[in-house]
Amino acid sequence: MSGGPTHDQGDKGVLSLNNTSDWMNKIKTIFISAFKDDQVKFRLGIAFKLMMLPCFTLAIAMGFFWTFLKMDLFFFEAYNIREVGNFQEIYFDYILSTVIGHTPLLLAFIAGTLLLGLYISNMVLRPFRTIGNYCEDIVEGRVSSYDPDFFSELRLLTRFSDYFFVIMQNMTKKGKLENIDIPEKYSRIHQPVFEKSFFIQFSLFVTITSIATGIAVFVATVDIHSQIFSLAEKTIKMTPAINYFLERQENTLFDIMTGILVAHFILHMVFCFHLYNKVAAPAFGIFATFRGFLKGNHEARIHLIGYYYLRPECRKINRYLTWLQKKYT
């Protein structure tokens, strides 16, 4: 008789375990599906690259810090501090306690940089997603309007796309596609143009991370050198020569950190141009395809080689162009 409740409890335990297993499998499936998505890969790639820039800079800075710490250890040992038992261990524990104190803030900063990278990558894809979604809505028969943000998008692409969609809307009402004379300001464009406003917008976010990294490096430099100076005051007799040495060392350390930060800023600018090139050529490709379609080349389709992250949007646009060609020519 007593086996009944025990058996029921066992069944509940098995059921709970099965439910947990099902949830884990669902989460696993979601993650696997997400990582197969080309745009997810692109976003994560951009976010990881942006995150690695401050990590790389901080790693180089820590390398120089370590060299200076070793030099100062030899300096203290030269003043017979080596007679103190376990001085080397005490020395590094004393100095590195400052670094450990900044670790939570450092991890939060790196996580914030990763999230900022995800936001920037999404911002870069947004103009193409807006066009693709509009094309998909029209083909599927849904009521839709093309409403880009002209203050933050790729201006050539968004403005010409708006011009293109308005003309297509008028032609579909007439029931026939006609050739259009392209305005000169569009017809004379034969290569990607530099979108200053778009470049400045996402460069601003990247510059913020660069400045934040610079502040973090200088704060760490001041704190660590202050610890060294404090240790010197506690363990050896301070003389004008020792003060001069520590002050000159601090100046040298700041010079090195300044050089690192200049290189860090240059790397950020290189990253900005790298990111911009990810969208400049595709934007021109879509623009040129739309322009050719208006001029009567109804076979024109978008074929972007090497821009895997825009495949979904290009498929939607090509499907829209095919729909126009079949239905209105």
Polypeptide structure, described:
It is a single chain. Helix content is 81%, strand content 0%. It is mainly α and 329 residues long. The chain has 2 domains: 1-36; 37-328, no CATH class. The mean pLDDT is 81.
Mean pLDDT: 81
According to DSSP, the number of beta strands is 0
* Residue runs with pLDDT of under 50 for 5 or more positions: none
Order of helices and strands: HHHHHHHH
N-to-C span: 82 Å
Tally of contiguous helical segments: 8
Provide the descriptors you would attach to this structure in a database record:
single chain; 329 residues; mainly alpha; 2 domains; rod-shaped
Gist of the model:
The protein is 81% helix and 0% strand. It has 329 residues and is mainly alpha-helical.
Task: Give the arrangement of secondary structure elements.
Elements: H1 3-36, H2 38-78, H3 87-139, H4 155-174, H5 184-187, H6 196-235, H7 240-294, H8 311-328
Helix pairs in contact: 2-3, 2-6, 2-7, 3-6, 3-8, 4-7, 6-7
